[in-house]
Amino acid sequence: MGRGIVTSLAKAHIPVVALEQDAQQLEIGKKAVNGLLEREAEKLIKQGLAPGSTLASVRFTLDFADLRDADLVIEAVYENMELKKEIFRKLTSVCKPDAFLCTNTSGLNIDEIASVTKNPHLVIGTHFFSPANIMKLLEVVRGHHTSLTTIATAMNLGKTLGKVSVLVGNCPSFVGNRLLSPYLDQASYLLEEGCYPEDVDKALEDFGFAMGPFRMMDLAGLDIGWRSRMERGLAGNKVPLGTPARQREGKRYCPLADLLCENGRLGQKTGKGWYQYEKLGGRIAQPDPWVKDFLQKYRNTHQIKQRPATPEMILECCLYALVNEGFHVLEDGIASGPEDIDVIYNNGYGWPKYRGGPMYYASTVGLTKVLDVLDKYYKENPDVPSMKPAFLLKKLAMVGEPPLKEWRTQVGNPDSKL
What we know:
Blueprint: H1 2-11, E1 16-19, H2 23-46, E2 58-61, E3 72-75, H3 81-94, E4 100-103, H4 110-114, E5 123-128, E6 137-142, H5 148-160, E7 164-169, H6 176-192, H7 197-207, H8 213-220, H9 222-231, E8 247-248, E9 251-252, H10 256-262, H11 289-301, H12 311-331, H13 338-348, H14 358-365, H15 367-380, H16 391-398, H17 407-411
């Protein structure tokens, strides 16, 4: 992620100081950034254009003191709150008093990170999407103390980098990943109940996604989510003794991805995940007989009643769960309107643009139909609260399904996080 951000800044002719933790990682990062910039230059030359920025605009260092003159800092370590707070304590003691401090987090609390700094109004979330030098979306996350000047600066930075920037509020997982969570949960529940990864992926890819959820997880690395779940006490040693395997905090939980990780199946990086690949880091996903056998044994162990799932059922389970969370986001004041949610999904999550984004798609399907399907599913599965129809969805269906542009008038006056 850090390499992609550095490359994006260099391409935009912004001088960069790139800080790493040790000499070996610094050298690896330097070679990677150099390679990315060289490929960008080759593309421009083939198009008959002058090459862009080179590595000369990037200074690599191991010393925090080299950030003392920086106007803006973007932290991009992995998702660990204590590590990020440790870094921000250093930044606030080293950087200029008016330096903007940005955290590239996909869902951690911006206010908690800002709490260890001297000037929390200068702290903001800048959630880049991987690979950061290619993906267009930038979620700009406003904390409780974030100033308007800081927001304007982050939004303008995104524009300078050629990104599509969307301002969102501070809550766990923000907007994009918050909607993704129930979508992935439903995909996993479908496996428990009789589907295979290729069944679910095919249905969603036929819908228009570039990649189904299981291929996507293999690409990203199953260990990323696993590490997050262990940190939250949902997996690993932090799970209280006696906790049912398929339940956490009174809610349904699917441990399949955890079990795959425990078997060393982390996705493309290990050559095996939900699928098998031709080699370590391979890209060609093939259905794996081991996974089919593993799923069948799991279903038998937990005596799970299998039900046939048509492509339509797969779409309804996964997409309506995602849409329902979108309505909760609007209720909570985390996004300013349904259009912002659609922009996020069109530019960062592979949603098929010709379908107009998840909230627009729901309006074309019919909110009453979405409501009826969710209501039926929730009554059959009361341990899956994410499928309980959102109040805003019920209200919009009740008032006659107004057009998308009028939805925000039905939200009322939420405690806006924007």
